[in-house]
Each structure stands twice: as structure tokens, then as C-alpha cells.
Amino acid sequence: MAYDGAEGYMYLEHWGLNDFPFENVPNPRYYFESESHRTLCEDLNDAIVRRKGAIVLTGEIGCGKSTVSQKVLLNLPENNFDVALITYSMLSPTEMLYEVCQQLGLDVPQQDKNTILKTLQKHLTKNAQTGRGTLICIDEAQSIPSIDTLEELRLLLNFQLGSTFLVSLLLIGQPELRHKIAELPQLKQRVALNLRLDHFDLETSMHYILHRLRSAGCTRPILTRQAIAAVYRHADGVPRKINHLLDRCLLVGMRESKSLLDSNLVATTIERYPS
């Protein structure tokens, strides 16, 4: 939510905050790791480090898939991994291969698929021979427009050195990604690990909210348990929805000179700003 300078300052001053706690932008300071997140990160890291081939991570919109995957990618030793991160997935087969090369720093002709594949295989082989892993990560993979593009990505898994994959493929997307992969049995059989990121439960939602408030400098209780429960129910435990609603609640509470957010204020905010 955007504020003018004066109102933004009043928002922070009113609640005793150093920063806006519920912005929906990546910020390592606000990263929250639940027990399920921790296990998922460990599983994901293990599959990447051991070069298991294809890995799939799915979850509903706003559940934090990109945040979790970025956490894992940023923790990979830079000298040991070459990572191509593709955030725009609506690409044809050749466009996808070209984008992979661009992300890996390879200079290739845009429309020459044969040269692209030869250059990519040479680079992957060189990485493997020097002990360096290569990871291709496709975010919003459910938006890949055709089975042909998925098939082209699958074929990259045929690049092997002995019994070792030259490349690992991480596909991140909404639940419909699983249905797309099911349409391509050759790819489905290559998936070594299927991971799913679920909504928060009530207790995890509470810890998430309190963590973000503390990270923003909050030093006193500013919302009741009943308010947290109301936020949880409305947001269905989805972090992005929790952020949207609580940011609005804090704004309404500031405008109404409240010192504590309760369930009535949450209900008023929901009615005033229907989502």
C-alpha cells in the first residue's frame, strides 16, 4: 500500500516501528522459517546438491514459493554452482533455451537452436568436470505456454556424464503445474522430488505476524490473539494475504488513534477494503 510521506511517517511513529512490517517485497530481514519451511528447504537443498535431476515445488498463490526457493539458491556456494534463474516462463522452446544461456552468461545466436544446444552442453560438461553444478530454476513454471517447452527442458536432463546429471532442473509454480507435468510422462518420470508449500496454520500465522512486527522494531503488544485469529481466518493462512490485511489494519488503527488492534478493527478493515 502506498502512503504519502507524512502519513507514512505517522504510521511508523504511531505504532513505534522502524519500518513497514507487512510489505509484500522480498527482504531477508523479514524471512520467516516455520518448521515445515525448514524441512522443505533442507529437502530442496539436498536434491540440488546431490544433482538429483528434476525437482518440482508447488503451492498456492502467495504462499511464499519464490521466497523459500530464493533462500535456498542464495545459500548455495557461489563457487560450486552455476544458476540460471528464469522468472518469465512464457517462452517458446528455442526462446527458453536462449534465456537459459543468457542467464549462464553464454553468448549464443538467438534463433540457432543447434548452436545453442552445443554451446550449452559444452558449458555443462565443463562445469561438471571442474566439480561445479548447474541449476536451471524456472519460476511461475505453470505459465510455460506449451508442452513442447517442457519437453525441451526435459531433454536437457539427457546431458549426463557417467551416472551424473550435467544439469538440475527446478520447476516452481502453482498447483496446476503438477497437471502440466502429468501430461508429459517422460518428464514426470524424471522428477526426483515433488515438494508442496502449504498455507500456515493458526499457530504458525501468529509466529509469522509477531516475527515481522519484531523485525520492524515493534517492542510492545499491538494486537490481540482474537485479532490474529480473525486475520488468519480471512487470509486462510496465506502469507501474502496476511500482509495485505494487516498493513491495512495498521493504517486504519493509526487513523482511528487505536493503541491495539482487536477483532472488531480487523472486521472493520475487511469491510472497508474488501479483497
Taken from the alpha-carbon principal axes, the silhouette is elongated
CATH architecture of the largest domain: 3-Layer(aba) Sandwich
List the uncertain runs.
Answer: none
Compute the average pLDDT.
Answer: 93
CATH first level of the largest domain: Alpha Beta
Q: What sequence of helices (H) and strands (E) makes up the elements?
A: HHEHEHHEHEEEHHEHHHH
Task: Give me the number of helical elements.
Answer: 12
- Subunit arrangement of the protein: single chain
Quote the beta fraction.
5-15%
In CATH, the homologous superfamily of the largest domain goes by the name P-loop containing nucleotide triphosphate hydrolases
* Alpha-beta content class: alpha/beta
Helix content: 40-55%
Spatial strand order of the main sheet: 2-3-6-1-7
Computed Rg: 22 Å
Say how many strands there are. 7
**Terminal CA distance:** 13 Å
Query: Into how many domains do the coordinates divide?
Result: 2
CATH topology of the largest domain: Rossmann fold
* Main pleated sheet: 5 strands, parallel
